[in-house]
Design a protein that fits this description.
The structure holds two protein chains of two kinds. Chain A is an alpha/beta fold. Chain A has eleven helices and 14 strands. Chain A starts with a strand and ends with a helix. Chain B has one domain. In chain B, helix 4 packs antiparallel against helix 7 and helix 10 crosses helix 12.
Chain lengths: ~300, ~300
């Protein structure tokens, strides 16, 4: 268990009677890439703003690395990078000047700042356009600049609000790779996105927010099991020829709850990942094992399931 | 705050806006000075005092003086430097990024205001210095120490006056989300104060103290006093009066009625006031302008600090 980076306790925010965030309890550990999901207006950005200390919670506590975001916003802002959804840069300054300004606002020493900026520009692939005005950059480049902008201060935590919206597929891959690289340098990342396949690709854990409440939270495969298989693993097996004896012996395996047969394939629900045991049983029963795979859960299915319920 | 100040200052100085304003003001200044110098030569007699100050106030009757040009341009400069201070950050998406940096929120607005003030000071000081230098070169009469003091106070007053207009524009930039709206609002207010206030004052004064067909001196004085009182709501009037008293030492009073009486009664050259007395004369005007600027800045400061950053 790593160090706790983000912790909220019953965090609540109401705007004139409308509850934007409702008793949110969140716990995110160091080095995680946490996918923060939910429809527009579910309270994701409000939560982030409260964690940054830009908005005061109505009640509850928001903490980043042990600092209270509401009472010590400067300490928090020193270790947190925030890339807002519609982030903008000073269009008539160059890429480098924009980063230098951020470095100055963070009180970086000039030489150190230059060193960081140079290596960062190389990392995000903007070295060639360092002296160009931001107004001449493409959208994908601007988003990469955004990543560099939060990286300059070497944060412990980064909030990325829709960093991939409106970018071409190649650009999206670049951004996702950068996020993964950032996380490898033990930066905790909170990644807000509606692009569920992207979230699934890079996030260790997700939280789904609906109407200000956290309706689901956890690693994607666990959420998937909860959402579709009643919390169980589902293993699909295909054999060359199905005989009833096999089904019986499979049912006898410890942990197997249910075996459904259709044609030559079997769908086995079990409490654990029992692929090894199941394979052994099949081989021992002299059946020919053709294929076996554990059911994978698409985040999209999970997401839709939760929103059908609420 | 220093980082914000430095960046804003650099932005201003490198901007086209600054270049245009500076050239505009400079051309007007040189033009006005040239005319003033032509006229000063013909008006000067061996007994004339304060020749140097006349460079700033003399006109040839058809074209306005340097002082008039300056009172026209200072509000424009102030507005141009402040009207998009906050709302441009907001619309460009820089504000939330900026506020998530480890700086106090007020350093954004303070830094911007101070940078604007610095640019304003640079423009005012350099324009007045250029005019004074031209005058010195062509007229050939050096300013006396009293004239020098009067000019220094004049410079400070002009900067404060510009600061008021900038504070007003910053105020609108906090309240209105679009830069175009805040600029229009500032300019509308300026036009109102500069052109319409005197008219309105006249109308109101005539309604309260009608002159009739055959006015007595008392009626005229009452009418003029009401006009003066109402016109003083406008910072343009305050600045005009204060600069007039500073640059025209002969002006014995800023009470419009008294001024009229003294001119009517004396009908001769007025003897100039000493510097300290002129300073006392303009003190209420100066304080009023400072107070107006402070109020505008305070309101925008409070509004900016309390504003909740919300998700869009």
């Amino acid at each position: 268990m790593g160090q706790v980076v983000v912790e909220t306790k019953d965090l609540t925010k109401t705007y004139n009677g409308f509850t934007a965030v409702d008793r949110l309890n969140l716990r995110i550990e160091e080095g995680e890439i946490f996918g923060f999901l939910g429809p527009n207006g579910a309270g994701k950005t409000t939560t982030i703003l409260m964690l940054l200390g830009l908005t005061e919670p109505s009640s509850g506590i928001a903490q980043v690395c042990g600092y209270n975001s509401t009472r010590e916003p400067l300490r928090v802002k020193r270790i947190v990078g925030y890339l807002p959804e519609k982030a903008g840069f000073y269009e008539d300054l160059t890429v480098e000047q924009n980063l230098r300004y951020t470095a100055e606002l963070n009180n970086l020493v000039r030489q150190e700042a230059e060193k960081r900026i140079d290596s960062l520009l190389a990392t995000v692939g903007l070295s060639k356009v360092a002296d160009q005005e931001v107004s001449k950059l493409s959208r994908g480049m601007k988003q990469r600049l955004g990543i560099a902008d939060i990286w300059v201060k070497e944060p412990k935590l980064a909030f990325l609000d829709e960093p991939t919206s409106g970018i071409d597929p190649e650009g999206i891959d670049d951004i996702l790779n950068l996020i993964v690289r950032m996380a490898k340098k033990s930066v905790t990342v909170i990644f807000c996105s509606h692009q569920l396949n992207q979230v699934q690709k890079i996030c260790n854990r997700v939280g789904i927010l609906a109407k200000g409440r956290l309706v689901a939270e956890g690693p994607i495969d666990r959420l998937g099991r909860q959402a579709t298989g009643g919390g169980r693993y589902r293993i699909e097996v295909e054999v060359a020829q199905l005989n009833p004896k096999l089904i019986d012996s499979l049912k006898r395996v410890k942990g197997v709850v249910e075996v459904q047969a259709s044609g030559n394939s079997l769908l086995i629900s079990c409490d654990k990942d029992l692929r090894g045991q199941i394979a052994k049983v099949i081989v021992d029963s002299d059946s020919l094992l053709v294929g076996m795979k554990i059911e994978e859960y698409s985040l999209e299915r999970i997401y839709k399931k939760y929103f059908r319920e609420t | 705050m220093y980082a914000v100040f430095r960046k804003e200052l650099a932005d201003h100085l490198a901007s086209r806006r600054f270049a245009i304003l500076f050239i505009l003001v400079l051309l007007a200044a040189i033009f006005a000075t040239y005319i003033a110098i032509e006229n000063v030569r013909s008006a000067v007699t061996p007994t004339t005092e304060f020749i140097f100050l006349r460079i700033f106030t003399t006109s040839d009757g058809t074209l306005p003086s340097f002082l008039f040009f300056l009172s026209l341009f200072i509000p424009i400069i102030g507005i141009a430097l402040g009207f998009d201070a906050i709302n441009s950050e907001r619309t460009s998406g820089n504000l939330s990024r900026l506020l998530s940096q480890p700086i106090y929120r007020d350093s954004v607005i303070n830094g911007k205001f101070l940078a604007g003030l610095a640019v304003l000071a640079i423009i005012v000081v350099s324009v007045i210095a250029i005019v004074a230098g031209l005058g010195l070169r062509i007229v050939g009469v050096p300013p006396s120490s009293e004239e020098a003091f009067r000019i220094i106070v004049f410079v400070l007053l002009s900067i404060i006056y510009g600061a008021f207009w900038m504070a007003l524009a910053v105020l609108f930039s906090v309240f209105f989300n679009r830069a175009a709206t805040s600029m229009l609002a500032s300019i509308a207010l300026w036009i109102f104060f500069f052109f319409f206030m005197a008219m309105i004052a006249g109308v109101i004064a005539n309604a309260y103290a009608p002159l009739g067909s055959n006015p007595t001196p008392e009626m005229i004085i009452k009418n003029v006093e009401i006009q003066g009182a109402i016109a003083r709501i406008s910072p343009c009037t305050l600045y005009g009066e204060a600069t007039a008293a500073l640059l025209t030492p002969e002006l014995g009073s800023l009470n419009p009625a008294l001024m009229m009486v003294s001119i009517l009664a004396a009908g001769r050259e007025l003897s100039p006031l000493p510097f300290s007395q002129s300073l006392l004369l303009v003190w209420p005007q100066v304080v009023s302008i400072i107070a107006l600027a402070a109020i505008c800045f305070a309101v925008s400061y409070i509004r900016f600090m309390r504003e909740e950053i919300r998700s869009v």
